[in-house]
């Protein structure tokens, strides 16, 4: 079949299809047809952007890129869009008059603005609904949506999804988990949507006061700590827990869990063209995506800064959707320190089996004179700090002997700082690794945070 015609047909069908039909397409398109559709939509997105947006027109001109000759991502050479481009001049990306704007908190300070049109939102709602169905949310389910509304996207996006899916829903926004807990029974809500740390607090309430039967808990916006997954499912008496990987820039989730595998995500290669760039020898690299469904503000080869890799051997479920590993951390959170490459998942693994500490922790790298200090800030309810620190050392030694060998060699010092529960997180997204070795002013301002006691 004529390739351009396939893409056009797909876009037309997607605008008019029901969530049930979209679900069928996601689950079973022939690979060759999917590739043709994706590449045709990529080509048309690049042409559209080059002829309608100031940013792309200028950037392509500077690099001598003729958009009419671009068929695949590699035809764009070293052209990428970055979070900095988006923060610097978001309106230059616009290709047509927008009707909605959302902001992205990111972890790097300035908010990024992403614009959408109304018809895109209607399409996104039906696509989210199809994703809900793939993950087990049927029209008769009753949804508690506790994702944030405000200036962020997930609350509104899931609201559109629940509406398109035909669900009864209570749109809470990110309110006190106690408010939602009280209403689960009142409205017979059986599906809960929210951020991982929020879900953990809701689960603590259920553990203390009793759980109602839930069918599914759906998290996103951050990774769920691995150790929390079996605990959450057991407190909620066998409810399924699934995660989505999305951002304001993606809008739709690029990663989701349609099967029972909770480690990593299947990729949505219908709405996005994903790439993993600059991979290391084990395949870990930065995830980059191109949006294929947006015309108001398409993002072409957008660098997410998130580090992942294609799961070796794929997902055991056998789905044709490619599978990526759990995110190893943001690229800008990888810190070369203490004689090695350190990333957030390392510390999560060290801390997950130590009892009496919360899921909120932060590592701060400082300089004491010229000496490097790895300061591990944890929240704990325990008072036996000596024993607690010994347990953390033992875990770190078992999992990362090279790191601890550098400690033994005095390449750096380790300082464990104990805080009360709920005191480390000061903003919506917790930056896990904070490198203040060359930023003494910020290092000093953080000193005012009151620890319980400084450990060994
Ligand atoms: Zn799978």
What does this structure look like?
This protein has 456 residues and is an alpha/beta fold. The chain folds into two domains: 1-331, Rossmann fold (3-Layer(aba) Sandwich), CATH 3.40.50.12780; 334-454, ANL, C-terminal domain (GMP Synthetase, Chain A, domain 3), CATH 3.30.300. The chain has helices at residues 3-16, 19-27, 31-52, 54-63, 83-88, 118-134, 154-165, 177-186, 196-209, 228-235, 344-351, 385-399, 401-408, 440-446; strands at 100-104, 112-116, 142-145, 168-171, 191-194, 216-219, 240-243, 255-256, 265-267, 272-277, 285-291, 302-308, 323-324, 329-330, 335-337, 340-342, 357-368, 371-380, 413-419, 433-435, 453-454. The strands form six sheets. Strands 4-3-5-6-7 form a five-stranded parallel sheet, with helices on both faces. The chain has a five-stranded mixed sheet with strand order 20-17-18-19-21, covered by helices on one side. Strand 1 and strand 2 (112-116) form a beta hairpin. The longest helix is centred in the first third of the chain and has 22 residues, at 31-52. Residues 259, 261, 266, 315, 317, 319, 323 line the site of zinc ion.
Going by CATH, the homologous superfamily of the largest domain would be ANL, N-terminal domain
- The value of Rg in angstroms is 23 Å
Q: What hetero molecules are in the model?
A: zinc ion
Q: Mean pLDDT, as a whole number?
A: 87
Tell me which CATH architecture of the largest domain applies here: 3-Layer(aba) Sandwich
Distance between the termini: 69 Å
How many structural domains are formed by the residues? Answer: 2
Give me the count of strands.
21
Mass-distribution shape: globular
């Amino acid at each position: 079949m004529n390739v351009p015609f396939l893409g056009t047909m797909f876009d037309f069908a997607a605008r008019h299809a029901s969530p049930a039909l979209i679900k069928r397409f996601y689950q079973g398109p022939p690979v060759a047809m999917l590739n043709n559709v994706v590449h045709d939509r990529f080509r048309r997105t690049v042409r559209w952007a080059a002829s309608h947006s100031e940013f792309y027109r200028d950037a392509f001109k500077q690099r001598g890129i003729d958009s009419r000759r671009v068929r695949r991502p590699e035809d764009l050479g070293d052209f990428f869009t970055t979070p900095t481009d988006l923060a610097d001049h978001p309106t230059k990306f616009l290709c047509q008059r927008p009707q909605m704007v959302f902001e992205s908190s990111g972890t790097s300070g300035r908010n990024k603005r992403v614009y959408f049109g109304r018809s895109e939102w209607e399409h996104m709602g039906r696509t989210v609904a199809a994703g809900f169905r793939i993950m087990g949310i049927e029209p008769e389910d009753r949804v508690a949506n506790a994702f944030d509304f405000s200036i962020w996207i997930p609350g509104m996006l899931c609201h559109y999804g629940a509406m398109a899916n035909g669900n009864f829903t209570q749109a809470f926004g990110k309110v006190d988990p106690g408010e939602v807990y009280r209403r689960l029974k009142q409205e017979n809500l059986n599906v809960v949507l929210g951020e991982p740390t929020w879900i953990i607090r809701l689960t603590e309430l259920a553990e203390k006061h009793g759980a109602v039967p839930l069918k599914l808990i759906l998290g996103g916006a951050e990774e769920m700590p691995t150790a929390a997954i079996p605990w959450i499912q057991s407190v909620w008496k066998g409810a399924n827990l699934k995660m989505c990987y999305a951002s304001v820039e993606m809008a739709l989730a690029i990663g989701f869990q349609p099967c029972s595998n909770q480690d990593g995500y299947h990729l949505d290669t219908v709405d996005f063209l994903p790439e993993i760039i600059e991979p290391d020898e084990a395949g870990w690299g930065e995830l980059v995506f191109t949006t294929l469904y947006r015309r108001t503000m398409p993002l072409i080869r957008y660098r997410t800064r998130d580090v992942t890799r294609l799961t070796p051997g794929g997902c055991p479920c056998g789905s044709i959707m490619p599978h990526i590993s759990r995110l190893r951390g943001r690229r800008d959170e990888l810190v070369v320190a203490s004689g090695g490459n350190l990333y957030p998942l390392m510390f999560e693994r060290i801390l997950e089996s130590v009892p009496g500490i919360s899921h909120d922790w932060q590592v701060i790298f400082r300089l004491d004179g010229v000496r490097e200090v790895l300061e591990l800030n944890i929240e704990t309810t325990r008072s036996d700090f000596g024993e607690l620190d010994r347990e953390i050392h033992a875990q770190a030694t078992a999992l990362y002997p090279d790191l601890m060998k550098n400690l033994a060699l005095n390449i750096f010092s380790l300082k464990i700082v104990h805080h009360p529960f709920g005191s480390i997180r000061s903003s919506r997204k917790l930056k896990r690794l904070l490198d203040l070795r060359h930023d003494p002013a910020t290092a000093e301002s953080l000193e005012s945070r009151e620890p319980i006691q400084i450990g060994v």
